[in-house]
Amino acid sequence: MGSNSSRIGDLPKNEYLKKLSGTESISENDPFWNQLLSFSFPAPTSSTELKLLEEATISVCRSLVENNPRTGNLGALIKVFLSRTKELKLSAECQNHIFIWQTHNALFIICCLLKVFICQMSEEELQLHFTYEEKSGNYSSDSEDLLEELLCCLMQLITDIPLFLPYTSKLVKTLLYNFIRQEKPPPPGAHVFPQQSDGGGLLYGLASGVATGLWTVFTLGGVGSKAAASPELSSPLANQSLLLLLVLANLTDASDAPNPYRQAIMSFKNTQDSSPFPSSIPHAFQINFNSLYTALCEQQTSDQATLLLYTLLHQNSNIRTYMLARTDMENLVLPILEILYHVEERNSHHVYMALIILLILTEDDGFNRSIHEVILKNITWYSERVLTEISLGSLLILVVIRTIQYNMTRTRDKYLHTNCLAALANMSAQFRSLHQYAAQRIISYTCRHLRRYVYVLDKLYFPHSHCSTLQHCFSTLSDNGEELLSLTCSHILRSYASSLFSLLSKKHNKVLEQATQSLRGSLSSNDVPLPDYAQDLNVIEEVIRMMLEIINSCLTNSLHHNPNLVYALLYKRDLFEQFRTHPSFQDIMQNIDLVITFFSSRLLQAGAELSVERVLEIIKQGIVALPKDRLKKFPELKFKYVEEEQPEEFFIPYVWSLVYNSAVGLYWNPQDIQLFTMDSD
Predict the structure, then answer these.
(1) What value, to the nearest 5°, has the Cα angle with vertex 237 and ends 236 and 238?
(2) What pLDDT was estimated at residue 193?
């Protein structure tokens, strides 16, 4: 490259790069290095720019791959970089910008070369490029010394601490603060970097280069599915730091020791916490929780920030306790709800993480009560209905039900709808002053599945009945389509339900099994899969059971707070009454049937043609009059999130897919990398 400004098109013919990759060994004390490193070349800031750079230097890299095992020039370059880093602090204090600039350039070249090496050779072949010894002309037996020294040096540069001190907690803390600060990058084209204050590392520009350099060592590629659409990053350093932190946190444990980075993430405390750390926690540190909370609230548009939030809530009890005690939880919950609301635009992993965060939060009764006390105005991103004023709790219910509905009709992920229902169940005993639309959606969504259930049973027991009216009604149902059902359909449902549930009450499971076998016989081949409606029966029944339990929990624990739910229930009472005798729902239907009967009687006594306001007034009066001991008590609905037995099977590919899709200034040719084999074994 040399002392002049370099362009991508000139790189293949650059005399200094040719000498670096040639057949001549270059001593680490050779003046050549000062000449090589005195270039003005803007570092790539996107994967597209890095791809262009790699394509322009492919001949140089191939030559170095071929010659370096004999020349050891890569090792010499790394040693030059290591020797310069020992003087960086002094250079920063003396404002020796040229020395810092050349050190940054050395790291940039190492970054580019190592990435190509990693893509094109095995781990054993890569080690050979670190083991050449010039004097003896052979290879060192201690093959990892130079690589280990490089890694330690990079971590020291990031954390700005002496090498002899433990760096695990310092590194995690620094990466978190990089995420918190969201520092803007230096101006384009700048290669001399001003010194930063307030503990920002040696130099911000150098730290940015170091972050990219670290990635070339740690990143072996990634597997990506659908790349999430994300806005332009305002802080590449924050993004790289966060991705590196997630990679480190998800490293598998060693046979004789747990992952120290995960231990550090699990144990750090608030700077305002003066209690001593237990001696059993080796990697503890303190960080400003308020700053971290603010950054997490502001950055939830990205997968990696949501994954960090999940990691902290799930693994760090100090963070979880702090967040649940906040009085401004809407700042955190609203971005999570917006992720779920735009489920069609998000990848499945991002949606799943957002949902698990809600499930973890709803494990706390204080959270479930407080969200109904937060009143929101004009939620512009919610487009189904204009919500001029609604509680955070009611909005959460609306979004979760919408997510369940989307999953049931599109993705059909059992774990997704199970966790959605678990979150609603956790909240149900603390439902307070439900918005009329939220109450309506709870009841109408339950009714939708009740009708679907009757339809599926009809198709199982009488596959050739061709109930066209019923089938047409279900084919025309929209998301809010209960209003589309005609009186004729309602009559048909009622008559079918009576006969079908009578049949079910005799031998429920055996009848279903026989009906399924009969349907298989009509298909005349065991290889032909059952229709979707037959396969969905158990799922529909599970959803109905959970929704009925959620309604029952609300009626039992907070009836007096929710007249709108009673109103919505009475409006659909005909359908609920049909399920009194269903063998799977008889127990849970007792309280619901009692409430329907009690309030229906009071409305009947009040006369016909009652206004909505009058009906609500009668309901509020009836709530006071209804003896609470008449409602049967059930065990409290409580669900707790527990990771799978081998969570790494989900998280490690997910993290590397984020690296592959989201890392700034990194381009990986999919044909050159394979991190996970596709073998079924």
Answers:
(1) 90
(2) 41
